[in-house]
Structure formats: structure tokens, C-alpha cells
Amino acid sequence: MNKKFMFFSLILFFVLIVSMTIAVMVGSVSVTPFYVWKVILSKIPIIQNGIEQDWSRSQEIIIWQIRAPRVLLAAIVGAGLAIAGAAIQALVRNSIADPYILGISSGAAVGATSVIILGAFSFLGIYALSVSAFLGSLLAIALVFFLSRVGGRVSIFRLLLAGMAVSFILTAVSNFILMMSKQEGALKAVMFWMLGSLAGAKWNNIVIPAFIFFLVFGLLWLHYRNLNLLLLGEEAAVTLGVNLQQFRIQLILLVSLLTGVLVAVSGSIGFVGLIIPHIVRLIVGSNYKYVIPISALIGGIFLVWADAFARIIIAPQEMPIGIITAFCGGPFFIWLLRRNNYSFGEGD
To answer: Are 245 and 153 in contact (CB under 8 A)?
Structure first.
């Protein structure tokens, strides 16, 4: 399986690179893959002197400053939401769980709404939206975590109920702020953000999401055995040496950190963390040694293409990326539910 896994991973990585290249090429101004890679390679200090700069300034701006950071962020967000979804589904042993079930998205939405409508954190300038959305997501998960503790232990059943309750409350807060506002431009901006958008991608706001993604990815992959044991049930996991409460807390914090950071830069993009782990389990089974990396690759590919379609489908306007993911995710999930032979953990 290891050779097949490595081969399959390399194929997916190649598909991801090709997808990202095509996504940079398409738009109101088309560019060739030759110039895409010449511009990108010219930014690498070691080899930039060997690249002949025969492109225009406008091409460089389009490729390097506008499209490349957006496409890279799409890959990071897609990969991050996918592994977060896979981890949450193992944590709660529920195939319909996703990163937003803990109220993280609703908390981030309150923070973003506060900035756009009320002008909160305006002293942070261009970072105000990301910081406030991240703080909102942290507040939401802290509240959910507090409500789910019983006798010093985290109850999964209470965690799910608390996540839904907090999500409903925070969504109501966001809607109340929207209803009280009379700024039409701000209302449109908030709604666009709530449906997901990567339009604000810049090189300076990719560093933190990329760092957090690789950190969480590495930690989840290192603990793939514990994730596998969670699927066997609490008693089996404890019997086989898992410190269940400690691992659950670590897992909740890691997933919350990753999702909060991603939502802060991309808005609420649904279905990625829900459907990608299902697709991966249908392909490679339920062993998290394979589920985590393959989910990251397929999640990245999926969101790169979703963002590309969001940019071109109603050009010159842009469609919120959450609409694209919902159109793809909804029918797939219905098909999955109708499959008589599908069950959570298929392929063990």
C-alpha cells in the first residue's frame, strides 16, 4: 500500500500544480503557462538571474500580485478545511460532522460583521477583518469548550449540542447587526464574505495560514494511530493506550486554530470539510495515515478549481466561492446518502 500511496500522492500533487497553473492563467486577461512559470521562477533568488524578463509589467502584476497569491491561498484553505473535516469526523465518530459544527464559522462571522458594519478594530487597518474574524472564532470555540465540559471531562454529545447552540446564537447576532445597519455597500460586503471569497488574497496574509496549516497537518499525521483508534470507540481507544481526554482537547484546539485562521482569510466556505474526507475514504479507506495527506491534496485541488469557476462563471463579476462548493457538495452528499453500501469507515 505504501508504494501505491506514494504513487497516488505524487499524481495528486502533479494534478494540484497543473490546476494551480491553469487557475493563474484564466481570467479577464489570459496568460500562457510559459509566462506564468517564468514570472514565478523570476521571484526565486537562486535562479532569478537566469530568467530573461521578456514580459510586460502588467503581466507581472496580474500573475504575481493578483492571481498567484489567490490561487495559493485557495489550495491552502481547501487543504486545511479538508483535514480539519477529517479530524472532526474521527473525533465525534460522525460522518456528517465538519469544521463549522463547533460554531467556529459563526464566531468568525460576528467578528467580520463587527468590522465591516461597526468599524471595530479599525486601528489595525487592512488586518482588521482577519484579526476580528479570528478572535470571533476563538471566542466561539472557547464558549463551546466550556459548555461541553462535565466534571472536568469533555463530552462529545455536549460538544455537538453546544456547537449548534452557539452557532445559532452567533448567527442571530450577525443577522441583528446586519438588520440594524443602513449601509448598503457594507451589507453586500458582509454577505459576500459570509458566502466565502478569496478576493482579498495578498502575499502578506498567506504566511500565517500556511504556517498554521503545515503545523496542524504535521501534528495530525503524527497522531494518525490515535485518530484510527478513535474510530474504534472510547473503550477500545483507552484500552489501547490513548489518553482520551487529553487527545480530544488537543484535537479540538488544533482544528479550531486551523479553521479559525482559514475562515478569517477566506470567509465561510462550506462543504469542503464535509465531502472531501468522504471522497478520500471511498478511495483509500479509513486509515488516517493515508486519509490526512490525500484529503489535503484533493481539498486543495477542489478549492483551486472552485475559485477559478467563481472568477470566470459570471465575469466580469465574481461569484462567492461558497455557492460553487454548495452546488458541488450538495448533490454529491445526496448521492452518497443514497448509496446502500456506504457507511462511515468504509474500507477498513
So the answer is: yes
